[in-house]
Amino acid sequence: MGVSNNITATLNFIALLASIPIIVAGIWLASKADNECTHYFRWPVVILGVLILLVCLAGFVGAYWNRQGLLAFYLICMAILIALLLILLVFAFIVTRSDGAYPVQGRGYKEYRLDGFSQWLRDHITNSKNWGKIRTCLADSDVCAKLTQNYMAADQFYSAHISPLQSGCCKPPTACGYTYVNPTLWLNPVSPMADPDCLLWNNDQSQLCYNCNSCKAGLLGNLRKEWRKVNVILIVAVVVLIWVYVIACSAFKNAQTEELFRRYKQGWV
């Protein structure tokens, strides 16, 4: 029984370590400008990571000090958390599967169409009810100000690999034919009717293209790009946690069997 508990304690320590990348990935997501302005995707990864860490700590204590009730609690809670993590993963893959990006000739960056992203993202993040607050939050951030600090000449900006959010919110669509002055100042559109966003562009630094559909699409493009990166970490963590959980269940079962066998022998003695 002691051997089984030692195995379980070791496995829980490994699972505890596996929760750390989940928490770090969640904090990285929450710190991004687009996630600071939205609420749906900001904290669930951090919360799940912290819960997994606490449950693994409980499992480690239960195994190390042979607290069978705590071990049983750990196994039940861990099963629930792994299921929630899998649901989050599947959900994130589904809603970020569609990509509204399209290349622009002569540009290093891409531009984005709102209808290229999933219906759920459009309905819950860029709807009229939520966008007013998001737009204000983006305008107060330094997302576009960074461009004017990093790029001066037009050819330097055109070849830059700027983020989807910057591409959609900080400049007018290329099809409008605006003349470049700096990354957030554009004049004299050649084709102002080429895109509805052409007429929404405003050189006021608090306005820019924050009311444009391209800005909404850029926000979704940023969310998609970041969640695709985090999903890789989550997949590795889930595989480790499932592997640890299966072995821990087997070790717990063996410990229970050994305890029953020990009591049975004592009864005969």
TrEMBL record:
Alphabetized UniProt keyword annotations: Membrane, Transmembrane, Transmembrane helix
A Pfam family annotated for this UniProt entry: Tetraspanin
InterPro entries: TET_plant (IPR044991), Tetraspanin/Peripherin (IPR018499)
The keyword Transmembrane helix is annotated on this UniProt entry: yes
Localization annotation: Membrane
Entry keyword Coiled coil: no
GO cellular component assignments: membrane
GO terms classed as biological process: auxin-activated signaling pathway
Membrane topology: Multi-pass membrane protein
Transmembrane segments: 12-31, 43-65, 71-95, 230-248
Similarity section: Belongs to the tetraspanin (TM4SF) family.
Name used for this protein in its record: Tetraspanin
